Amino acid sequence: MEPFRVHILGCGSALPTLKHNASSQVVEIREKLFMIDCGEGTQMQLRKSKIRFTKISCVFISHLHGDHCFGLIGMISTFGMLGRTATLRVYGPKELGPVLDSQIKTFCQGLEFSVEFHAVDTTKKTVIYEDRSLTVESIPLKHRMPTCGYLFREKPTLPHIKRDMIDFYHVPISQINNIKLGASWTTPDGDVIDNSRFVEPADAPRSYAYCSDTRYIPDLYKLIEGVDTLYHESTYASDNADRARKYHHSTARDAASVARDAHVGKLFLGHYSARYNDESVILKEAQEIFPNSYLTNEGMVFDV
Ligand SMILES: [Zn+2]
Ligand SMILES: [Zn+2]
Hints:
Largest sheet: 7 strands, mixed
CATH superfamily of the largest domain: Ribonuclease Z/Hydroxyacylglutathione hydrolase-like
Strand content: 25-35%
Helix content: 10-25%
Bound molecules: zinc ion
Distance between the termini: 12 Å
């Protein structure tokens, strides 16, 4: 199965700590790398992770709080110094466009690659990126400013060929693609061999949803129903529920409720408040509602 995994570069929240970096992660799907959020310090985290800078084609920014985007201009500047020529696509709320433009004009004169900005409507779920193997959709979230999450979905792939059956019936190589697309095979004697003899079903397409930052949205589950893996912010545990409400963040209980209602496979927690020295309280609270919950940490890599 082709890789579909997530590299955690930062899973802290706004206040810097020695323990966590600001939000950023890289989604790796079949040789392609997509960054989600780019808090301060992201490029140092990239260095540590040994992810190849040049392979990042797109950056998706959830909202314009500094802990999600202060690292972007620094990273763009570094891409310039490293001699990047490939276009970098940046997706985010429309307010990011003029800010980025002005920063590039001020700090990155003579860039030899273009930065293409794509404004995302944070009020609705819509496909904002598509290529041969996947789509990315926006997920409207509720925070103190326009904010959206992102949903990465693999496209269905063609079935696997049963090599031994191909050999057995002497099917020529030139016909293999047709067989993958559903064709049957007629032998030289005129016998029709059904397509199902030659193929095994394709792997089920996988999906990953990123939801940070947001207050608890009781019907968010409808937008991410059945995703394999969900990252949902859990800035606090319920001991700080009033704070979560005030700053439009979620508790571990909220995150786990969304995961349970959406019937996701796995839940990953992050965006921890600096108030927690030990996040096991966050994990415990989530697992009481949704057992398949995990804490994220810098340097962690998980399969979707
Ligand atoms: Zn944040
Ligand atoms: Zn925020």
